[in-house]
Design a protein that fits this description.
This protein has 569 residues and is of the alpha+beta class. Helices cover 40% and strands 20% of the residues. The protein folds into 3 domains: 2-237, no CATH class; 259-401, Glutaredoxin, CATH 3.40.30.10; 428-568, Sandwich (Jelly Rolls).
Length: 569
């Protein structure tokens, strides 16, 4: 409910977003072009924009998961439509001839009902609203959060939030259209379809359409964001609620109030075992572990999970690894099976590509463990790495309660918890859906297929930049030609998730030197290069201790895809 209200308020606030401000004249102009007293025009624009934005959300969901069509193609179409509307407004006789011959106006009036039957043309405002939908889709962190985080887990719930966001946005745009129409309608010369005012609006349409089609509207957005004190993104992001988590009492070994574990559901492609259910495992102690194979936290966590399994599997204990994918390539069963083998996991693992079991547990984290007793109740919950000795003790206690003899056994004897540094560079996504700390030019969202990226002379701490040509999409960036990525980091270890259709090598420099000369190469790097093929995680840097400031530069050949950087200390 909190996110539903937050999405609605975010839609209202989106009118203040730097990427929306240049488009407001189009909303007002579309409302007054033609009959300046036609009260239905603002309604038609707002409704068309709302429907367009919802449809575009569905398309973006499909293109991210299914066919991977670059979302910027739809932006090109939007810009072209706005330009065309400007041309038609500039030459109204040409517009009337084409619309009349195609019979579009008559069909539009019929579709919208008798209440809209009047001499005013509806086609213009319908097309105006529809064309702006994809442009508005990148203007709010809340919209981006719902698209990237909620939709993949619960599509129906995500769409409800999107509709709430669109409703808030449409109400404000409707008000702007009405007030703008009322104000301009008082100016007599504004009603003349061949007058200078209408022609000025037509030229404005063409200019804005060119900005949208070329991506320069995003550069305007970036300039406004960086040269004014108003931080729209920070304000809007406050509307994103904290995730639901179990109420954990860290002072207790069994740190949650016991509750019945939900049944496994929607799992496929079991590895290391036949399909399992919690009902069939009743009488055993079960550890349910949510993970995904390119997550560095999961990779570091998995040896401990495997150790629990090997130590206690003969005493009435088992592990169920629930693989919930973060990226599209992690949905492929062969990739998961290969990762399970490479990481030496012998316990049962199943793919939760639909996030069904994830939803049943109301989970939100990778990794996350749910320890279930022999009666089928969740007794201990842990998110992330660490607390291995506590989990080991909890497993032992539940096994002993179940009558098992585990005298002298310990899965993690002598192993310390993984340390972390508060100064460590945060996990950093590279695709537009979740990108952060990008400092180059043009802005990622403004990039086109012909864009050439440049990096600033000096990067700030934890910032990164590109040079050369790159294709930018929702969950990845793809090098075109011999391109580079530079990142100023604070970490003990640095990793990148990526892949290539054919085996290639990425050159690695550290603080301006080939990494082979620094002695700090990760185990994926040989002779200052990473051999990259399968989409997975590669370790680039391994310092002997936490290093507060270093700069890593990757020389990336054509076709190599990169998804996310992650760090360890």
């Amino acid at each position: 409910m909190l996110l539903l209200l937050g999405a609605f308020i975010a839609g209202i606030l989106t009118v203040l977003a730097p990427c929306v401000l240049p488009l407001l004249p189009i909303i007002i102009g579309g409302s007054v072009t033609g009959d300046s007293k036609d009260k239905k025009r603002p309604i038609v624009i707002a409704v068309a924009l709302a429907i367009s934005l919802i449809i575009f959300t569905l398309l973006l969901k499909a293109t991210t998961v299914l066919i991977n069509v670059p979302p910027q193609y739809i932006t090109y179409i939007s810009g072209a439509i706005i330009i065309t509307l400007g041309v038609f407004t500039l030459f109204p006789g040409f517009y009337a001839t084409i619309i009349g011959k195609l019979g579009i106006e008559q069909r539009a009036q019929k579709a919208l009902g008798k209440g809209f039957n009047s001499k005013g043309s509806l086609v213009g405002p319908i097309i105006t609203g529809a064309a702006l939908g994809p442009v508005f889709s990148s203007c709010s962190p809340v919209y981006g959060y719902i698209l990237a985080t909620v939709l993949p887990v619960n599509f129906a719930q995500g769409m409800i939030y999107i509709i709430s966001y669109v409703l808030g946005l449409s109400i404000v745009l409707l008000a702007i259209g009405y007030y703008g129409q009322s104000f301009i309608g008082k100016i007599k010369f504004a009603a003349n379809p061949r007058g200078w005012f209408q022609r000025a609006l037509a030229i404005l349409f063409i200019v804005v359409g060119l900005l949208v089609a070329t991506g320069y509207d995003k550069r305007v957005q970036t300039y406004v964001s960086t040269h004014t004190p108003f931080n729209f993104d920070a304000l809007s992001a406050k509307l994103i609620p904290a995730g639901k988590t179990a109420k954990i009492d860290k002072t207790k070994l069994f740190n949650v109030a016991p509750y019945k574990a939900p049944e496994l559901t929607g799992l496929q492609n079991w590895i290391n075992s036949q399909p399992q259910t919690l009902a069939s495992l009743k009488g055993k102690v079960v550890l349910v572990d949510f993970w995904t194979y390119s997550c560095i936290n999961c990779i570091r966590n998995n040896p401990y999970i495997e150790s629990y399994y090997k130590t206690y599997k003969d005493a009435g204990f088992t592990v169920l690894g629930i693989h919930a994918p973060e990226f599209a390539f992690e949905r492929i069963p062969a990739n998961v099976q290969k990762a399970v083998k490479q990481q030496g996991l012998t316990y049962p693992v199943a793919l939760d590509n639909g996030f069904n079991t994830w939803n049943a547990f109301q989970n939100q984290y990778w990794p996350a463990e749910y320890l279930i007793d022999a009666k089928g109740q969740v007794r201990r919950v842990h998110y992330g790495e660490g607390e291995y000795s506590q989990m080991d003790s909890a497993i032992q206690q539940l096994l002993m309660e179940n009558g098992a003899s585990i005298s002298g056994k310990s899965a993690i004897r002598g192993v310390a918890d993984v340390p972390s540094s508060p100064k460590e560079t945060a996990e950093t996504y590279l695709g537009t859906q979740r990108a952060s700390n990008y400092a180059g030019s043009p802005a990622l969202g403004a990039a086109t297929s012909s864009s050439v990226f440049t990096a600033p002379a000096t990067l700030s701490q934890n910032n990164w930049a590109l040079t050369g040509k790159w294709d930018i999409s929702g969950d990845k960036i793809t090098a075109r030609g011999n391109s580079t990525l530079t990142f100023r980091i604070a970490a003990k270890e640095a990793y990148v998730v990526g892949g290539s259709a054919t085996p290639q090598k990425i050159g690695v420099m550290l603080d301006g030197k080939p990494i082979s000369q620094t002695g700090n190469a990760g185990d994926s790097v040989v002779d200052s290069a990473v051999s990259i093929s399968d989409s997975t995680l590669y370790r680039l840097v391994k310092y002997p201790k936490f290093t507060a400031d270093s700069t890593i530069t990757l020389t990336v050949p054509d076709g190599v895809e990169l998804n996310v950087f992650t760090f360890g200390s």
